[in-house]
Amino acid sequence: MMKLNNKLKLNLQPKLILNLLLNVVVFMPFSITFAQTTLISKSNNQNQQIKAKIKAELLESKNMSVKLYRITQNGKYGFIDQTGEVVIPAQFDLAWGFVDGLAQIKLGDKYGYIDTTGKRVISPKYPLSFAFTNGLALVVIDYKYGFINSSGKVVVQPQFDEALAFRNGLAAVQINDKWGYIDFTGKIVIKPQFEVAYHFYDGLAAVQIDGKWGYINAAGQVVIPPQFESTLRFSDGLAAVQMSDKYGYINQSGKFAIKPQFNDAWEFIEGLAAVQVGQKWGFVNANGKMIIPPQYDKTTSFSQGLAAVKVNDKYGFIDKSGKW
User: pLDDT by residue for the chain (324 residues), tens digit each?
Assistant: First the structure.
C-alpha cells in the first residue's frame, strides 16, 4: 500500500513518476490481510444469516459493480467479496485492484489480467503492465511501451521509450528524450517537445520546459508559462505549485489564488487540501482559510469525509471539522 504522506511531485524523474503513479492508482482498494479475513470468516449462525442477506441484496442489485478486495495468504494474493468470502483464492505473486472489471496480476516475472471470477483473460506475458484506463492498458513489449485493449489485442504498437496511461483521451509518450501526446489510435497530436509531460486534468497538463514547470491545453498551447519549481495537477480548479521553497495554489489563469506560504502542499480533494506549516500538517479550503490547524505529523487526503492522521506514533481519523 502507498505510504502516508507519499505525495507524487511532478519534478520526479519520469520513470519514477511512471512506476509510482500508474501503479499506485490501482492499489487504492483496501488490502486485507489473511488474519483479518480469518476473523471475518469466523462467525456464528446470526452472522452467517447476515452475510447471506447481504449477498442476496448484492445479487439483486444488478446495476451494482462488483467490489472485490485484496487479501494476502502465505505470500500470495487473492480477493474476497464484501461479505468476507474468498472469491478468488490467493495464488498470485502480486495483484492490484479491479478497474473496469479487470485486475493486474503477476506470476513469476510476467504480468497479465484476470476478471472478477479469477479467469486469466489476458495471460501473464508482459515484463511490465499497468491498469486499464479509458479501455486501454499500457504494456511493455520488447522494451517499448504500447497499448492493448481488454481482449489483449495491441491497438497502439509498442514504439515509445516511456509512456503514461490515457487520461481524457490523450496519453503522454516519450520519443527520443522528448515528451508529447498521442490519441487512442496512436497518432501524435501534440509533437514531442517537452522535457517531461503529464496527464491532462481539468483540461490542462503540467509540462517541463527548460527545467521549469507550466501548463498546456489540449491543443498543445502553453497557457501558463513555465515558472514553477514543481507542480501538481489541477483539482477543484486549483493546482499546488512551488516557487523557491514555498508552495501555494494557482487558478487556471495562472494567478495565485493562495499565495506561496506552505512548506508542502497537496491537491484539493473533497474541498480541502493538506498543507504543511513547519513540521505539522493541517487543511485549507479553496479560499486559503486554515480550516483544520497544522497539528498532525502525517496525513492523508480526505476520502468519504474522513482523513487518516498521525499524532506521535498513533493514527486515527478526523472529519472535515477536525473532530476525531
Answer: 333 443 433 333 444 333 333 333 333 333 333 333 333 333 444 444 444 434 443 433 333 346 899 999 999 999 999 899 999 999 999 999 999 899 999 999 999 999 999 999 999 999 999 999 889 999 999 999 999 999 999 999 999 999 999 998 999 999 999 999 999 999 999 999 999 999 999 999 999 999 999 999 999 999 999 999 999 999 999 999 999 999 999 999 999 999 999 999 999 999 999 999 999 999 999 999 999 999 999 999 999 999 999 999 999 999 999 999
The helix/strand/coil state of 190 is strand
Give CA–CA dist 260/281, Å, rounded. 16
Task: State the Cα–Cα distance between residues 186 and 243, nearest whole angstrom.
Answer: 35
Query: How far apart, in whole angstroms, are the C-alpha atoms of residue 200 and residue 204?
Result: 5
Measured torsion, CA atoms of residues 265, 1, 51, 118, in degrees rounded to the nearest 10: 130
